[in-house]
Amino acid sequence: MAISIDIYGKLYEIISNLKEYNSPEKLEDLKTELKFLKENDDRNSIYIADYGDDISVIVSNASPVNIAYIFCFPGFIGNIGSFHDSLRIVPVSTALSGISSQSISIQSRGYFAGAYLRDSDFASSDFSGLDLSGADLSNANLEYCNFTNAKIQNANFCGANLNFASLPDYADTIEEFKTVTGVGNWNGETTIWTDGLALDGYRDPGPVPAEEPHE
Q1: What is the pLDDT of residues 61-105, one digit of tens each?
Q2: Superfamily assignment of 96-200 in CATH?
Q3: What's the CA dihedral at 181, 182, 188, 193 to 10 degrees?
Q4: Confidence of residue 127 (pLDDT cuts 50, 70, 90)
């Protein structure tokens, strides 16, 4: 008798708990589970970019019609920006930390909530509509990035470069940004979008109004 597997229910469960895969042993367990699901998936919608795997090759083999999920593990190679609209990027553990992928267009086609993206270079990329809540973007280069309608609640921007970035409407002022991201998720070295200066940088207060002459 064939085993009935709720493949997409399991995928949702995995994606919702990605932060739990935080050790080499748990990462290997995840790979084993994904391979099992892949073997039983008649839609061919699960792909694994493991250490040394070129994601460009995986993308070229993926169907441009059906929704497909690419689970990126630490050590994969290639540019995550070269993919079509039906693909969903799922970074696992530190897979995207320190990578250089400028001018990519992820938009809402990824599962980046809680992702480790620190020290990465995403300059001029389009993250509009993307869920980045709880993500670690510390020391990332986010210059000219588009965060319109993105979720950045509790995301870590310590030391990040947000010069000329487009922030969501609800976080478009310095005070709103600080409130939305939360204490500890920004610091004096965070370069902001309004004037290109660090948060603790000196800002010219402008001319001092002349005093009215006394009679």
Answers
A1: 887 778 899 999 999 998 777 677 788 999 999 998 988 888 888
A2: E3 ubiquitin-protein ligase SopA (2.160.20.80)
A3: 20
A4: very high
Pairwise CA distance, residues 133 & 124, whole Å: 20
| Among 165, 158, 204, residue whose Cα is nearest residue 183 | 158
CB atoms within 10 A of CB 158: 18
Q: SS3 of 214, please? A: coil
How does 144-153 read in b/e, with b if 16+ C-beta sit within 10 Å?
Answer: bbbbbebbbb
Query: Could you give the 3-state DSSP secondary structure of residue 12?
Result: helix
Task: State yes or no: pLDDT of 208 exceeds 60.
Answer: no
Domain borders along the chain are 1-94, 96-200
**Which residue has tokens 């267009």?**
105
Structure confidence by residue, pLDDT tens digits, 49-62 = 999 999 888 888 88
Mean pLDDT of the chain, nearest integer: 88
How wide is the angle at C-alpha 56 spanned by C-alphas 20 and 118, nearest 5°? 40
Residue from 188, 183, 190, 101 nearest 137 by CA: 190
* Structure-token match 């593990």, residue found: 73
Residues of 161-174 as b/e, b for ≥16 C-beta within 10 angstroms? bbbbbbbbeebeee
| pLDDT value, residue 205 | 61
User: Rounded distance, CA 78 to CA 46, Å?
Assistant: 18
* 3-class DSSP assignment, residue 133: coil
